[in-house]
Amino acid sequence: MSAPRRLRLGVLVSGTGRTLENFAALSRSGLLRGEVVLVISSSRTAYALERAALLGLPALALAPRSFPSEAAFAAEVFRRLEKERVDLALLAGFLARLPIARGWRGRVMNIHPALLPGFGGKGFYGLRVHEAVRAAGVKVSGCTVHFADDEYDHGPIILQRTVPVSFEDSAEDIAHRVFEKEKTAYPEAVNLYAAERLLHADGRVQVLP
Ligand code: GAR
User: Fold this and answer.
1) With a threshold of 0.85, does the pTM exceed it?
2) What is the pLDDT of residues 104-125, one digit of tens each?
3) Residue ID of nearest Cα to ligand 1 atom 5
4) Catalytic residue status for 200
5) SS in 3 state form for 98-155?
6) C-alpha 196 – ligand 1 centre gap (Å)
7) Going from the N-terminus, what domains does the chain have, and what CATH number goes with each?
């Protein structure tokens, strides 16, 4: 019998890199069926780049503004991923819009710290998401892992995890609670992908038993 498939992962970041660190730790402890072979940051100053260096992960910065067009930026991102023979790209707080290249539909995942299709899209990042959740008075929030398409925080949903929201919660309280869920939800989705248990049908994802 052949060994279970270990994916070559590309992680795309713009922020602090907590998600990246979580992937690296789980990969090293054998709980993630993949290893991070490339980190791409959309910002030269993102702390995630320092974190990648501390973790000994190969990383580079590609700033969208240094490309003549969004298409040229995306072409370079996917060229780098292909060069490293990445199987699956993981958006981990990546703030640049990324039109998905040919051959990459269903091979780029995103996580969003709310229950999509609510509280997502352009401008919904960081504490803004949780401030909007609090202002709406909803009683649950959570995180969504989905395959990415050409729109921000959009595409077939793979899994969602919920957390309770109480009247007294600050945006920071909600953010903390949601991120704790993210730490298991995103790796779980990657492991389902590695196990070939995610089936696309009519813009939806079926999780096979
Ligand atoms: C995560 O909470 C992720 O859900 C969110 O960015 C954070 C990244 O944190 N993504 C989005 O808001 C996508 N719209 P990190 O840089 O510390 O890993």
Assistant:
1) yes
2) 999 999 999 999 999 999 999 9
3) 93
4) no
5) CCCCCCCCCCEEEEECCCCCCCCCCCCCCHHHHHHHHHHCCCEEEEEEEECCCCCCCC
6) 25
7) 7-111+145-160+183-196 (3.40.50.170)
